[in-house]
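agent> fetching stored inputs for the adenosine-5'-triphosphate docking request
agent> found them:
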Amino acid sequence: MKTLTVSVVTPSGPVLEEDYEMIVCKTETGELGILPGHIPLVAPLTIGAVRLKKNNDTYQLAVSGGFMEVRPDKVTILAQSAEKASEIDVARANEAKARAERRLQAKQDDTDFQRAELALKRALNRINVTRK
Ligand code: ATP
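agent> prediction call returned; pasting tokens
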């Protein structure tokens, strides 16, 4: 089976660099599945899961927005944050979820509301990624 190299980098450093048969990302215009030999493109990512497939196994990462650059033999993801499923602290994500929900219920200005909405999305994404 052909593979392509997937590299995931965040401001805190590299998260992953490995070969996979397929990668599926959540872009701002929908889910995008990339196989080796894909035409080059750049796409903005939303908060969501990145699925990596190899030898009939699927691995997941939680990614909090950023960009993906696709070349025929390599996908590079520059993410605001990215965690492998096994590295996610579920208790921390549950606390972040509860905090965000409290802030969404409190009466406050639009900026704080939007920040809380994004924090809730990040927390739910992390929780979902650990469940699959
Ligand atoms: P929190 O309020 O718990 O910090 P957050 O969504 O505000 O959550 P981010 O700003 O997205 O956190 O991330 C800050 C750093 O902490 C990043 O390096 C990210 O990978 C890491 N991180 C955040 N939440 C978790 C988690 N639940 N498990 C593991 N790492 C996490």
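agent> quick read of the result: The chain has two domains: 4-85, 89-131.
agent> awaiting further instructions
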